[in-house]
Amino acid sequence: MKNIFSKIWDLYVDGFRSMTIGKTLWMLILIKLFIIFCILRVFFFPNFLNTVTDDDAQKDDYVSTQIISRSYQE
What we know:
The protein is built from 4 helices and no strands. It is mainly α. The protein is elongated, with a radius of gyration of 23 Å. 0% of the residues are buried. The mean pLDDT is 84.
């Protein structure tokens, strides 16, 4: 008797083998995810905490004071 995980694996492998246009769509999805998480992150989402300080304890203090001060503003 096969393991449940191997049955699930076989189901997905057989499904992907029989795809024609689905492979192209999955490739587009993977390319878009790569662009979003690798390329856009570098240019549009810089690591702001490294500009504040290099020490981890000071980063913790900065984040906690920012959270507290912003919660009182609302």
